[in-house]
Write the C-alpha cells for this entry.
Amino acid sequence: MYNQIFKRKSVRKYHDKELSGDIIQKIEESIVNLKLYNNKACTLIIEIMTYDDFIRDKKLNFITKKMVIKAPYYLSIKRNHTEDAYINAGYCGEELVLKLKELGLDTCWVGAANVFDRGAEFIIGIAFGYGDTTSSVVRKRDPLEAYYQGDCNNIKIVEALREAPSAKNSQPARVLFKNNEITLYNNNKGDRILKDLNVIDMGIALRHLTLALDYLSIEYTIVKNKDEFIIKTKAGKHE
C-alpha cells in the first residue's frame, strides 16, 4: 500500500458505475481484516453504503449531510465504543482508502467542519467509486522541510507523511526525529473549528508513517503520550 500513498488524490466527481460483486467482496474482506493502531482488531463499525442510504442515515450529523459528494458509494465509520475512536477512524479509514486505490477506485473523505458531539456514533464518511478523471486534481502541500524537525535518517518517512489528506488541507501532522524515536504531533491545536477533524487527520498521518516504516523494513513500536505518538524504531534496511 505504500506506493498508493503517492497515487491517491481526493476526487469529488464520480461516474455512476456499479461495482462488481468481486470488488465489493474484496472491500468487505479488507474491512474485516483491519487493525487499530495498537494492533488490536478493529472495533469500529464500518459499512459500505450507497449514496442514497448514506444521506438517509439518521446518525449522520446535519453539517456532514450538507457536504456530501455525489458518489455512488460511501464508507460510513461509527465509533462502537472504540478506544481513541477518532484517531482509529483516521488510521483504519486511510488504510481502506489506499486499498480502494489498489482496486482502481477513487476516494474523498467527507466530514463536518465541526463535530459538536464527541459522543455521537457517526464519526466520518469516505466517498468512493470510479472517479471522473477528466477533471484535474491538484494536491497542494507545504515544502518537505516544514514537516519535520531533528535529524531525519530517511526522508521517505517524511514524504509519506506529507501526502496524508487532512480537513480543509490544514496539514496538522508534524514529526520530530530524536535518537531512535519519532514523535508525531499536531501542529494545528489552536484551530477550534477543525479540532475534532484534525484528530482524525492525525490517525491518517500515523497510518502513512507506519506504512513508510514497513516499506523501509524498520521495526517499531507505538506509544501514545496524551495527544502525541512516540514511535520507537530499530534500524532496518530499504529493500
Observations:
- The first helix runs from residue 21 to 32.
